[in-house]
Amino acid sequence: MIEVGIRMGDQGEPIAEIDIETPHAARIWNYWMGGQDNYPSDRAAGDAVAAVYPDIVRMARLSREFLIQVVSYLAGVAGIRQFIDVGTGLPTMQNTHEVAQHIAPESRIVYVDNDPLVLAHARALLTNTSPEGLTTYFPADYHDPDLILEQAARVLDLSRPTAVLLMGVMGYEPDLAVVRDIVGRLMAPMSTDSHLVLWDGTATGDAVEQGGRKLVEAGGAPYILRSPEQLAGCFEGLEMVEPGMVRITDWRPVRRIGTTEPLDAYGAVARKP
């Protein structure tokens, strides 16, 4: 395995050198979504998974449709103007700030990720789309909710309704109790009418579980597939927005390109009462 080196950026911040020979979760996902920010190791791992679970490509691309749907709902129907997107991943099309600020130009979006590669892309691509709003990012790991909240509070008013987005990232934490603790700590200081969005791949078919094993065999980071019921348990104390915990393709669907066949990915939106 290649060691990841560290160099210093123009502002004196540490920047990790890119390890192109080890498959990288964000780059593999970027490959499945049809992006260009990936390397042969990422494509090999992605192809190994897709060979036994072809729906992974559809999952990656339809997860962006889910993001567009839920952010449109939050910025439109729910009137949310503040968003914390945790585990951002590599920027692609229709990112959170673009969707929110298209509907409500004054929206303020904070992106959070612990990956230097993601943050390097964020610096270049996650820029404000409206003069009234704000788009920013900072490095943090979702295992440190206190740091995330501290940093977010510098640019957001957490006494006002805020949406916390955990989009396909909590499977990297193997302990469900830890996942629930992280979610609970992130939502604890949020005001009434704040919202949580969470989706993940689920253990709802043999093929998707085989795909998870292939990912590890190819050198990718393990991803824990849970049941929809386990994911629903992460919303304790919150009020589910209709239709509740469903396949991400079934969350208030609009006309889409592609099929509507069952997908091994579930998610929900919930309001803090």
TrEMBL record:
<dbReference type="Pfam" id="PF04672">
    <property type="entry name" value="Methyltransf_19"/>
</dbReference>
<dbReference type="GO" id="GO:0008168">
    <property type="term" value="F:methyltransferase activity"/>
</dbReference>
<dbReference type="InterPro" id="IPR006764">
    <property type="entry name" value="SAM_dep_MeTrfase_SAV2177_type"/>
</dbReference>
<dbReference type="GO" id="GO:0032259">
    <property type="term" value="P:methylation"/>
</dbReference>
<keyword id="KW-0489">Methyltransferase</keyword>
<keyword id="KW-0808">Transferase</keyword>
<protein>
    <submittedName>
        <fullName>SAM-dependent methyltransferase</fullName>
        <ecNumber>2.1.1.-</ecNumber>
    </submittedName>
</protein>
<dbReference type="InterPro" id="IPR029063">
    <property type="entry name" value="SAM-dependent_MTases_sf"/>
</dbReference>
